[in-house]
Amino acid sequence: MIRRFPTCSLLIALALLSLSARALELGDQAEVLTSESGISATLVPTADGSKALLRLNGVDHPLDGVVMLTEVEKRPNDERAYRAEINGKLRSVVVFARSYWAPTDYTAYIPGREEPYALVADEAGGASVDRKALMAEYQQQMEQGVQAELARFDRDEALKRQRQALAAIDKSASTVCGTRVKTRVNWDGLGDEQLNNLSISGYCGQVAAEMEYLCRKDSGFKQKVAEISEVDCGFGDALDLRRNANKLVFQTREEADNQREAINGFLQNL
């Protein structure tokens, strides 16, 4: 049984959520950002600029309508990221970065979505923001535990997402190689930190991905793959790949160097 402990970033986030609304002094400025897809963001920095209340609307995601107390990460060239704890991880939700090719400098990043959303400042909208109402909304949601629930790591959802990504790699390899490729992972042996911070499909799916690459490169390799029924993958102290009858047993590690090259070399010598 895996014992799960709150991450350091989660503890920090929960500490921020526990702050009384009265302890927050909002600045005089507010911004409203909009996108062509209907997403809008309301930003109200604190007086010292270290934090900001942020609310996104129009997104099909649990963070829709949640007023988050974000940390403002200041970056070079006056760029900045508004970061909040979502699903057990401190994430950049809105980023301001000067762009010479895009029509806007603001971008929204929705967890679980591959494509970011370009946001354009709405000056008239910013002037009409009711800062006291936004503060009251934040306080009410905080008392209801809305932000704390958003910050909590959802292991079941992470497992679902990782399994789907790995299944897609197996399916592609199976199609190209003309034989069933199945990667099995000891999911119960993975901790929350690994599930939340690592691309398990990127590690464990590399064997199937290399099989597909070699099948595309050399049709003769397909015969070798036909002898392999599955790939068992787990994490350990060292990178190791071996064959056990019709099964490949793959052990990887988080700091593994040249994983692809090692797998490729082994497969070519099956």
From TrEMBL:
Species name: Marinobacter segnicrescens
Protein keywords: Signal
Signal peptide limits: 1-23
Domain of life where this protein originates: Bacteria
Name this polypeptide is given: DUF4476 domain-containing protein
